[in-house]
Structure prediction request, 1144 residues.
Amino acid sequence: MDVRLNSNLEWQTVANSTLTKKRSTAYGSTVALKSAMAASGAILVLYLIAHMYGNLKVFSGQAAFDGYAHSLREIGYPLLPESGFLWIFRIVLLASILIHIYAAVTLWARARRARPADQRYQVKKRVVRSYSSYTMRWGGVLIALFVIFHILHLTVNVIAPGGRSDSPYERLVNGFQPEFWYVTLFYVLAVIALGFHLRHGVWSGLATLGVNQARRQPVLNSIATGIALIVTVGFLIPPVAVTFGLVS
Amino acid sequence: MNITLRVWRQKGRDDEGRMVTYKLTDVSEDMSFLEMLDVLNEKLTLENEDPVAFDHDCREGICGACGVVIDGEAHGPEVTTTCQLHMRSFNDGDTITVEPWRAKAFPVVKDLVVDRGAFDRIIQAGGFISAPTGTAPDAHANPIPKPDADRAFDAATCIGCGACVAACPNASSMLFTAAKVTHLGMLPQGQPERASRVVKMINQQDEEDFGGCTNIGECAAVCPKGIPLDTISQLNRDLLGSLSKGIG
Amino acid sequence: MSENDLYIEGAPLRDEKAPEGPISERWDKRRFSAKLVNPANRRKLSVIIVGTGLAGAAAAATMGEAGYNVISFCYQDSPRRAHSIAAQGGINAAKNYRNDGDSIHRLFYDTVKGGDFRSRESNVYRLAQTSVEIIDQCVAQGVPFAREYGGLLDNRSFGGVQVSRTFYARGQTGQQLLIGAYQAQERQIAAGTVQMNTRHEMLEVIVVDGKARGIIARDMVTGEIETHFADAVVLATGGYGNVFFLSTNAMGSNVTAAWRAHRKGAHFANPCYTQIHPTCIPVSGDYQSKLTLMSESLRNDGRIWVPKVGGDTRDPRQIPEDERDYYLERIYPSFGNLVPRDIASRAAKNVCDEGRGVGPGGLGVYLDFADAIARLGRDAVEAKYGNLFDMYQRITGENPYEVPMRIYPAVHYTMGGLWVDYDLQSTIPGLFVTGEANFSDHGANRLGASALMQGLADGYFVLPNTINDYLADGPFEKLDESHPEAVKAKEEVTSRIDKLLSINGSRTVDSFHKELGHIMWDYCGMERNEEGLRKAIELIRELRAEFWRDVKVLGTNEELNQALEKANRVADFLELGELMCIDALHRRESCGGHFRSESQTEDGEALRHDDEFAYVAAWEFGGVDSKPVLHKEALEYEYVEMKQRSYK
Prediction:
């Protein structure tokens, strides 16, 4: 048998339709990033619900509210040092936020690369897309800015339009007085943005974590809408109540 | 009926493109959309103008070759392939905008023709069951519950047209990849390679510069074969399972 | 040697490879006698496979897996789009899972009879044997065939048979089988054994020292004319139904690869055997670009009828039962609506010719599901045929659940093709032809659900077990692009392209194609006669001359130029059309899809003349504007008695 190779066998080096050889790992894949976003988002949603529950204690009066705020520092005490749990909690929250933002920014960049600005459609129609899904990215930025303001305002009290106080209750009441309507307005807008963010985010997170099935899809969407509504309303009630003088 | 067409014209991959307007008279409402483009091309040819290039082949909605964005919707206003869209879906006097699929992973070859080789490479990465010819057991050796077989079939009807990518705000190919992962993952024959398949396909999908999925649902809404959105959740579940087993 | 005004009769032809002996042992015998190539040597051998339908993709996957270097070509942007994908109804296999008396022998018998005794017994028997393995192979690949609640595979019936042996995947069987083969092929591409060239069209075969050694292909994106060499060339390029312009074929389906091979020495067998499928959506206007098939499986439950009296324009639902003519059930009581395709088509043509056709132009018959819906319920009908009903509604704008469908026959499949021996090798050594592109297994008429069976049989099981007999003598001498035969072939291609681009006449390519289609349909369609065929030959010659004088192809070669692609294909159709008419003219009998009005029984059925025409007509290219040479391969029937087909 003649063992010379035919010239046409050299193609293996030029094969143009075979796989690209870049090595990537699925741990950094879009799906993994999205899962990290969903998991961190889930932590943040649980936190928000707890936070909302705490906020509503404002209607039980100053003592109850301040007492509740103080009790958070005592969780686990004396097993943990004073405020120990709170700090662990804060670290987990911060990590979740950073992971959430990192994943969001990375996926955003990938999406922009996947359809660069010069390849946009001249006409684009939305078919089933929800309004809330539109607001995810800029809404997310707005929420992040708000969170910074919110911490400076009510947690560390650096920004204190109505005067500083050691009492969380007073900080809240001072901050949302009618003359500081713009603070209330910003808060309301941010909470509404948060509501939209949750409407799509909760659904999307559940789908990303593999929960979606055709027959469950309406249920998941209802859950997302429910959580979004509850959180939105729950967070809006205290400051609006202060602004309108229902809490003083 | 008389219509005005705005069509994307682009000479080659590296050329600048632009929208060009054409008028067509006496369009029959029983024409398919592609037959209307045929009429345009006959007219252009006789006027010594370069006819519009577009992909098409079977013209019965199964080969997946055709596909353009019509007035902002992949495959146009009906949920079907472009070749099965008929002019009765439009009105006399309409202006219709026709653009190619837009995604970095689908570069324009000419006019409305794009290169969808990325889909083939995703399949190459793992979209198969390794069953060399001649090694098969009897077809009845492995009964498959009908619901599983039906779900596998529903996912397997994907025609690889790329409308999901075209419609996705992130230019993600998740529905395409998920359809194959689900098709093969529902079958007992597909189990041995299930964990590695999803990892390889996702990695390839990322390398092709498709965007990530944000569970918006535009893909499934325009899919001419009705690939269910929940296949994406099934893919996510499979991928997370693989990652948790250390397969990445 | 004799000669008449249209062709020359040459020496008879014989299939040298077909083994003798009991028919059930012949395939074993051939596999044993064929030379083998040891696995280490396969790496040194290369095979070009043109086309990625069932026959091409299956062969590429199998031969790649076996270790050969496969170079694969398709004109589509992805191999997954080959037109096998459009097959709807199913694939036959002699599994006898229904315990209804099926067997390999019965599938063999049905196929020979269905083909009206114009196919080779040995080939058909092998096809029936292989059918069983195909289903197993496809299931192993993950093809999601329809299943019953017990988890086992479902079956249905198809035309021309009385057993349930058709496996299916809703109305998308071809798609699922092709995707299975495509995935197997993609796996080999990833493994490096198959090199895929998409958007490449083969325009010439390179023959060196009498052997097929490569092809000239055009990169349809850049226009580059490429030379590819290999130790063998396989054409899996499908049928030529698009010679009729309107057909159920894909828009790009063409005869060019087969025709260029024919011009280089491969005989073209039985070109006049075309299958007109009875259940297609009727033509709606002259802008129409293609015809859409409604699966034959619809005839399982739908009933075909026309009004008893012509000119009845009532809403079909208003026509009472006793004023309807369920003509298939009336004429063919034992097979009823499930007679073979050729018979159903011609019956439809006859009732329309009598003026009893329905719909615009009177070119249609009703396919009515009212009874089935009443018997099974709408949901059951929807589950079985939902996608077909949807497609019908989309195209016609009518709701078939309420109004009977209108159907009319349309060109669907070509039984003719390049002549091959038992090894699937053409008359050019080293050039193999598989699937619809060859002529071998269906005789003068193909039964439903047999095309998928043949494509996969050839691709997965036959070719990979016969081509080794040829390749064992390789690798052949190394060639490069400067070889005179390669240079010549390339020049032929470029000069033809230059010519097409330089004519700059006044008519578009499509206008020529449509005109050719009309000629073919009118004179070489469902019914043919001497006068019409002679006229058609004249018309085609005139049209061909006009084409080369007056065609208008804009643009250049060095770009994606779809008009140029079409022009290349139509140029070959214009030559093929003439040969089809000559073949139809010389076969002065009716058989299967070839119906000569001069040769019919008293009640209008096809009348064969076995004493004169029991042969394969293999045509040798005689040169441009010269007469073709006819070689007859006698057909002998040892296992099936030749008799008049009867489905009554």
Notes: The helical segments of chain B are 33-46, 117-126, 146-156, 163-167, 174-185, 194-207, 218-222, 230-244. The beta strands of chain B are 3-10, 17-24, 69-70, 73-74, 95-99, 108-110, 113-114. The longest strand of chain B covers residues 3-10.
